[in-house]
Design brief:
Strand content: over 45%
CATH architecture of one domain: Sandwich
Largest sheet: 27 strands, antiparallel
Radius of gyration: 26 Å
Shape: globular
Structural class: mainly beta
CATH class of one domain: Mainly Beta
């Protein structure tokens, strides 16, 4: 008994926080990655790194030296990364690479020292760059956004037992308070040769490597000035056409347009984004997925459109958004989801369809050390043929920092519809107040919120409310979540999968750190999830044992075995094959197992899989989804994506197949070619999408995109499109 109490009482040690002094430069640097300028020796800021993996208690096996200096216009950063040899692992020349399974280094700048938001710039031995925005303290991978893009410069060089890189970041690219004399900084390195991950600030393994609670201070020898005029114009020109073969005669539509974006630095911390006739046709298409749940998951993909990305956490973290392996699926909700902007219901088909955005404006960023604001306004076009009215969407947010890392946020979402079609509301408004908790050492996380909807009609309970609290210790994690969504709560620019429902989801996990080659770390715990309608009792329940194992070669296996209960509130065919549906009002108790597996990404061939097996309502389920990935370094990846499901019920059986080969070829750091093919027997569809991208200048691109959709059984064409587009980033 004593040993158990002692085990649970082990606290997460708070390690000393380092700091560095950054002195200005007396010369200019040729950014070639070589570190051959003599002055670099005067600007060494650290060579002390700690292991994060495979253990968090030792100095790094391979040293990393970081150099930093600055002048009036640029921040200069360099690194020298020692290794056993020059057999560096770099999957491809693709920008915004994933850090795992890749030799690379990342520099993180928390320019407001709020330990909540930061900019990340990364480099690998082949000189491939990545940039990202970290929000919400970096408390979860969903707050690490690699779709953000901006202008900066970098190069790298490889040697026999080390590699070096040089980075030049314009102060115009960063946001900070004029006169700053200190930022928070973090640097971490993935040494994939030796399978070591190391950090400048010592971080316990139960925390994410980019968590902003673990940063040190970088002190400037003299305060930073305002970075001069900060104005960028990004025009585009698009030409192309589309044909719809489902209509007679075939409908041919020209896809020619001109538009652009404007970025204005109002202050070093506040930016204005504007767009006229934006075009997102060259954004990489979402991969199809098999939906085996009873709910619409078409709106669960990440935002990739550049206009919506900077400070996106101001607009996109409302409500309950907690990804976790769950027997009942991910049923998170939010009153505002940016991907709903420019997406409306086609009244002729009842499905979501893209709608043209005419213009938009975003004002976002810091107005003081402790206050951030966000204002978004978008005007969308009318589409008479599909019964879609023109509408204006406005989101206003004010966020005030409290204590060390917490904040209080007030928000208003307003959708105003002009000349609404039959059955459509002329407005939908949601106002809310949220408190987000994050302790200095990240042991405590949580939030509490209340949202009120304002819509036509006299329906009751037009509100949602909820709270979560996480105790995150080195040896254990305890979590409580609950929310209630009222019957009348409606958020047309958000995601609300259920109404009139009260959900609770507590869980408790124990962490173990064997540090062995077979099992490096693991957790095991219990999870309970319940949905209850106030007038009819429990509708869904899941009681499960959950666990995760990370091996010494960085493979990750996550699993859950759960007993589930479901009361159907609508007829439902779990086979998705047109069989006799299970009837509304019937209830089922069944047990199944779920797992996710990611193999060692350093290998030439790696594997990602997730599966569900066991009972399913009154039948069975065997579902396997994943990808086999082949790396031909450094020119790209070949993926074979697949989803195979066999589902039975009292109404019949169904065999679902989705297969999608994908090639990602990177000829150089500026020329990329991506092609994927997808076959889905559920929708009787085959589609092909091919995209060539040439980055001829920083953040300036030429795209050529071709797409096709066919009937799978006859291979007759449904629709086809080809688009050429050029964008150019012009600083004034």
């Amino acid at each position: 008994m004593f040993s158990c109490v002692t085990f649970l009482a082990v606290a997460q040690e708070r390690y000393p926080t380092p700091s560095m002094q950054v002195t200005p430069s007396s010369t200019s640097f040729d950014i070639d990655g070589a570190l051959d300028e003599a002055e670099w020796a005067q600007h060494l800021v650290t060579d002390q790194f700690w292991q994060y993996f495979p253990t968090d208690s030792l100095p790094a096996q391979h040293p990393t030296e970081v150099y930093m200096t600055y002048d009036e216009n640029f921040l200069y950063v360099a690194a020298k990364c020692y290794a056993d040899n020059n057999e560096f692992i770099v999957p491809s020349y693709r920008r915004d690479y994933r850090a795992t399974g890749n030799d690379n280094i990342s520099f993180v700048f928390d320019t407001f020292q709020d330990q909540t938001n930061a900019f990340l710039f990364g480099m690998n031995p082949f000189g491939v760059m990545r940039e990202a925005l970290i929000s919400n303290g970096g408390s979860d991978t969903q707050f690490f956004n690699t779709f953000w893009d901006n202008k900066w410069y970098g190069e790298a060089k490889m040697y026999d037992t080390y590699w070096t890189c040089e980075v030049k970041i314009p102060f115009k690219t960063l946001r900070y308070i004029e006169g700053s004399n200190a930022w928070n900084f973090m640097c971490y390195r993935f040494d994939s040769q030796s399978n070591e991950q190391s950090t400048w600030v010592r971080i316990p393994q139960n925390q994410l490597i980019f968590n902003l609670a673990f940063t040190g201070e970088m002190k400037f020898a003299r305060p930073l000035k305002k970075p001069g005029a900060n104005l960028a114009i990004i025009p585009y020109l698009r030409a192309g056409g589309a044909s719809d073969h489902l209509k007679e005669p075939h409908l041919r539509t020209p896809l020619n347009s001109v538009g652009g974006d404007l970025k204005v630095g109002i202050t070093p911390g506040l930016i204005l984004d504007a767009t006229i006739n934006p075009d997102f046709s060259t954004v990489e298409a979402d991969r199809q997925v098999q939906n085996l749940t009873r709910f619409d998951i078409s709106l669960s993909f990440p935002e990739q459109r550049q206009f919506f990305l900077e400070n996106s956490d101001l607009f996109g973290t409302f409500g309950s958004q907690e990804p976790f392996l769950s027997g009942l699926g991910n049923q998170n909700f939010t009153p505002f989801y940016s991907r709903r902007v420019g997406l409306e219901v086609d009244t002729t088909t009842g499905t979501y369809t893209p709608i043209r955005i005419l213009s938009g404006v975003r004002l976002n960023g810091k107005v003081s050390n402790n206050m951030r604001i966000g204002l978004l306004n978008i005007q969308t076009a009318r589409d008479e043929e599909r019964g879609i009215s023109d509408a204006n969407t406005t989101v206003a947010v004010v966020q005030q920092k409290v204590f060390s890392r917490s904040n209080i946020t007030a928000m208003l979402v307003n959708k105003q519809v002009f000349n609404p079609v039959a059955g459509q509301n002329d407005y939908n408004r949601v106002a809310g107040l949220e408190y987000n908790l994050a302790s200095p050492d990240n042991r405590w996380q949580g939030k509490a919120y209340y949202h009120q909807a304002f819509t036509p009609g006299s329906q009751d309970q037009k509100f949602s409310t909820g709270a979560s609290l996480i105790r995150n210790e080195y040896r254990y994690q305890a979590v409580w979540n609950h929310f209630y969504i009222g019957e009348g709560f409606e958020a047309e620019v958000g995601v609300v999968p259920r109404r009139n429902v009260f959900r609770i989801n507590p869980r408790f996990l124990l962490n173990f750190y064997p540090g062995k080659r077979l099992i490096n770390k693991q957790y095991i715990g219990i999870s309970y999830e319940e949905y209850r309608k106030l007038n009819s009792g429990v509708t869904d329940q899941s009681i499960g044992i959950v666990g995760e194992i990370t091996t010494g070669n960085n493979a990750v296996f996550t699993w859950q075995v759960a007993n589930n209960y479901t009361l159907l509130l609508n007829n439902f065919d779990p086979t998705r094959s047109g069989n006799l549906p299970l009837q509304r009002g019937t209830s089922y108790r069944y047990t199944n197992a779920q797992f996710n597996f990611i193999s060692d990404r350093r290998k030439l061939i790696s594997l990602e899989m997730r599966g569900v097996f066991g009972q399913n309502f009154d039948g069975t389920i065997a579902s396997l989804t994943g990808a086999v990935i082949y790396r031909f370094q450094p020119y790209g990846l070949l993926n074979l994506n697949f989803s195979l499901s066999r589902i039975t019920s009292s109404g019949g059986k169904g065999n679902l197949l989705l297969i999608g080969p994908r090639t990602d070829i990177t000829f150089s750091r500026s020329l990329f070619w991506t092609t994927f093919f997808q076959y889905n027997n559920l929708t009787n569809n085959v589609n092909i999408n091919s995209r060539i991208q040439w980055r001829f200048r920083p953040v300036s691109d030429f795209f050529l995109v071709y797409s096709d959709n066919y009937f799978a059984d006859s291979f007759l064409v449904k629709n086809r499109a080809i688009i050429a587009k050029v964008t150019y980033w012009l600083n004034l």
